[in-house]
Amino acid sequence: MDKQRDFVLRTIEERGVKFVRLWFTDVIGTLKSVAIAPAEVEGAFSEGIGFDGSAIEGLTRSYESDLLAHPDPTTFQTLPWRGEIDPTARMFCDLTTPDGQPAVADPRQVLKRTLAKAADAGFTFYTHPEIEFYLLKSSSYGAEGPEPVDSAGYFDNVPGGTAHDFRRRSVRMLEDLGISVEYSHHEGGPGQNEIDLRYADALATADNIMTFRTVIKEVAIEQGVYATFMPKPLSGKPGSGMHTHMSLFEGDTNAFYDEGDQYHLSKTGRQFIAGLLTHANEISAVTNQFVNSYKRLWGGDEAPSFICWGLNNRSALVRLPQAKPNKGQSTRIEYRALDSAANPYLAFALMLAAGLKGIEEGYELPAEAEDNVWSLTDAERRALGYSPLPASLDHALEYMEDSELVAETLGEQVFNYVLLNKRKEWQEYRSQVTPFELKSNLEML
């Protein structure tokens, strides 16, 4: 760590960095930033930078508000969109109380705690997110709703289109920040794009997702458009998901791979999937944390609505992609409920905790779903045992409230804050009178 700190201090000097932004998130996953002068960085490493935690939603109660932000030198990067005028860098932070204890409401700490539990069982957790988002002409919207930058579709090549330049600039910027991109393409909705980040350990991936969202927003501003990670911004068009591929490794060995199994899926892999299926409803209020998230889950267009798994089945909640021949290390599972607006630290912690619970308790994996689950009738789905995911945020909060797994993984303070914050969101949503109601009822009744 000392070597890494020395590298950071040397780089700041060599590149003439003028500001260093210290980044962390609140419980909902909003990025927070405080800028310090280069002269303060050494002190930040040794003692942390103090701030008032009560000013940040969910991080502390007001009577225990003093917190310290400790920059993680391994996350140091200069910010390419700041250019050469007043070069600016960033580091992610771990938050502690003044006496050095990890801050119980720090989302990064929640994930680190869960990763440590996996490490105790001999596992490293890797994730690979496919992040979807919409590009709109502006953040304002008329009677027809937001206006996308194009009307293209899945994998479309749009000559002279905004999206090409946008993706090229974004990918280059991400690579400059040390974030490897695997694919980028136009998605199914008008103005919808997808950029997939390369596999990395879950903590690095969560940090990368927070950086990714900032990069996308910055490039959009630069190009005169607006980017949104809202799960379902356009009625009748696909929502924006963040399908996440996951695997556990024991050292250099993929714990999900079994050469002798017909799907090359090990017992550990099966139990992990069973854990995800068993606890899917309980973790929904975090993996899908907004009222709008459930418009995506229940709006069709490849969003999963029912709890089942399948081999290459895109209508299932958990998909087992077919590994390439002789590439056992690539065996992985894909969780398809997560949306692009989730707090990645809390979502990854809960998905990992659910999978580990399946391994610890030896959960049995039910039979795979071979059919298109959306095209079955309710009676057929019931007969096959495919339960629905929560239909609303309110429904998801009921499951979460009764979940020992979620309470234990998040810790009391984060657990209570998420419930409190999300109940408030649901109350505000429920109390409004919508254009739909006025259109349907005002004249008729």
From TrEMBL:
GO terms for biological process: glutamine biosynthetic process. InterPro entries: Gln_synt_N, Gln_synt_N_sf, Gln_synth/guanido_kin_cat_dom, Gln_synth_cat_dom, Gln_synth_gly_rich_site, Gln_synth_I. L-glutamate binds at residues 296, 302, 314, 336. Residues 15-100 form the GS beta-grasp domain. The keyword Magnesium applies. Keywords: ATP-binding, Ligase, Magnesium, Metal-binding, Nucleotide-binding. Its cofactor is Mg(2+). ATP binds at residues 182, 245-247, 314. Binds 2 Mg(2+) ions per subunit. GO terms for molecular function: ATP binding; glutamine synthetase activity; metal ion binding. SUPFAM superfamilies: Glutamine synthetase, N-terminal domain, Glutamine synthetase/guanido kinase. Mg(2+) binds at residues 130, 132, 187, 194, 243, 334. Coiled coil: none annotated. Residues 107-445 form the GS catalytic domain. It holds the Pfam family Gln-synt_C. Belongs to the glutamine synthetase family. This is L-glutamine synthetase.
